Amino acid sequence: MIKKFSETPIFFEYKIPSENDINWLKNNSNAINVEQNFRIKSLHTYKNMKINGTQDIILARQAVVLKLNEALELLPNEYTFAVFDAFRTIETQFALFRYIYNQQKQMNPSKTHSELYDITREFVIHPNETSRYAIPPHNSGGALDLTLKHEDSFLDMGTDFDAVTPASYTNFFEQEFNENFGISKERWLLIRKNRRILFNSMKYVGFTNFQVEWWHFDLGDCMWAKELEQNWYFHSMEKSLK
Ligand SMILES: C[C@@H](N)C(=O)N[C@H](C)C(=O)O
Ligand SMILES: [Zn+2]
After folding, report:
1. Prediction pTM value
2. What are the angstrom distances between the C-alpha of 40 and each of 14, 53, 180, 202, 225?
3. Range of 196's domain?
4. How many domains does the chain have?
5. Catalytic residues
6. Active-site residues (predicted)?
7. Taking ligand 2, which is a single-atom ion, which protein residues have CB atoms under 5 Å away?
8. Where in 36-97 does DSSP place strands (E)?
9. Ligand 1 nearest-atom number relative to CA 136
10. Nearest ligand 1 atom to alpha carbon 138
11. Closest residue to atom 6 of ligand 1, CA basis
12. Domain with 44 in it: what CATH number?
């Protein structure tokens, strides 16, 4: 499978879930720890960054974790998933929006509030913008931010997690090699291959990807539904945790 995944370009076209798939999602909606398997590790990224409202355990819907395990089983044993983040409280979602807005403000001091807001909103969902997403995907427990490791090394995905740049667009390295980007052709093709492995393994088991972030995947939430033009099923998971 890994050869097939690495050779298949990134296409944002997905199989529409069947009624059975939907019933299965609904029947596996309880909150569980993503670390159900020694091949899935939480990085606790936002807790380490001291973003407000983070939790000690990285949770997600059971369906998400089961599908993540399925994706992993399609890959050789030396591959593991490193999860940056999954379920997120609304407090963290607000804090993250503020964090990235402030980071962009520092990097672009001449930009107006509205320009900075638009840059930020491309990469982070504002919890008050319910006309875009009724429930922020991570708050529903249906979203995952993750990358792949091979043995002890992170695969080269071309950008850092949460890098606010077009190079984070999932299919950025599908375009022809461009030497003005400042990396070798060899590295360009390696990044392309690594992103394909992550994207195609997740897509194969039913996840959709947020097209501007190579690391973000959804199942059963508003973002998944928008991508598939279907209904969404996972409401806020926060209420059920209180
Ligand atoms: C901030 C980034 N890691 C992320 O999760 N972005 C998506 C779009 C979100 O905010 O839900
Ligand atoms: Zn995300």
Report:
1. 0.97
2. 24, 23, 36, 14, 25
3. 2-241
4. 1
5. 213
6. 213 (proton donor/acceptor)
7. 145, 216
8. 40-42, 59-61, 79-85
9. 11
10. 11
11. 124
12. 3.30.1380.10
